Amino acid sequence: MKTKEEMLRMLAVLTDEDRPYPERLEAYEYLLEDCDEIVDDMLEKFYVSEGETGKMLIEILAGYKGNPAIYMGLVSYLYKGEDVALFARLLGSYGDERAIDLLKGFAEEYELNYNEYMEVRNAVEQLGGYFDDDKDYSDDPFYRYLKGLDEPETDTRRSPFENIFAPAEGADAEDGEDDGCDCDDGCDCGCGTCRGTTRFAGQRPRFGPWRRQPRDPRPPPSPRRPQSGPRQQAAGRRTDAAGINTKNSRRTNDGNFCLPPFYRA
Predict the structure, then answer these.
(1) DSSP count for the chain of H helices, then E strands
(2) CA-to-CA distance for 205 and 209, rounded, in angstroms?
(3) CA-to-CA distance for 169 and 197, rounded, in angstroms?
(4) Residue 118's closest CA among 147, 94, 98?
(5) In the chain, where does DSSP find H-type helix?
(6) pTM beyond cutoff 0.85
(7) Residue ranges of the chain with pLDDT lower than 50?
């Protein structure tokens, strides 16, 4: 369980810009949750911090809901314009419905790129609002990249299975046979024409009627049981010291085993 002394120590590490960045990043991850006791201390540090330290602090504070000071801090960083997409997303996840009108007004007042527009719209809808914007983003580089508008139509964008069953070039459109092939429809010779494509010509077919064989009417033979072994001995198959199978040996009246007559001297 986290203690307040440990929380304050990690807060000091985070706000010390002379510390190595990996240590500050570790403190950042530590303070992201279960540090409600020092929210006021983090706010005090936030008011006097700038740059990367202030941004890290407000990102941490965005995880502690219901504080008006934190909401105003998120709004102030949104209007700084340094990372509109990030702080629009944080406002949407913070859950304060006052941000609906604020985000709509921000989108109308400032010219957003497509990425920022998407984050603002998603934040408004996450808060329960409705965002209607008919602005054309077809010239935005990020929009064109997502839609693939600037990529040429090449074979690399086509499915490798697009024409797998299409007749080969020069095939007869009526019966699907290659020119020069005398096979009839339904032939099972296994050539590429009779399989509907020449792509697999020369390969052994893996499926289709040409692999079917007549069924043997006889029942399959039963597997042979081994004649000796621990499993058979446990089932009652007894073997004497000379290795002679005594399963069919007869038992005398006194209960002793004796060999069949042809084994006796």
Answers:
(1) 10, 0
(2) 10
(3) 10
(4) 147
(5) 4-15, 21-31, 39-47, 51-61, 68-80, 84-94, 99-109, 114-126, 141-147, 230-234
(6) no
(7) 173-179, 192-193, 195-201, 205, 207-211, 226, 228-255, 257, 259, 262-265
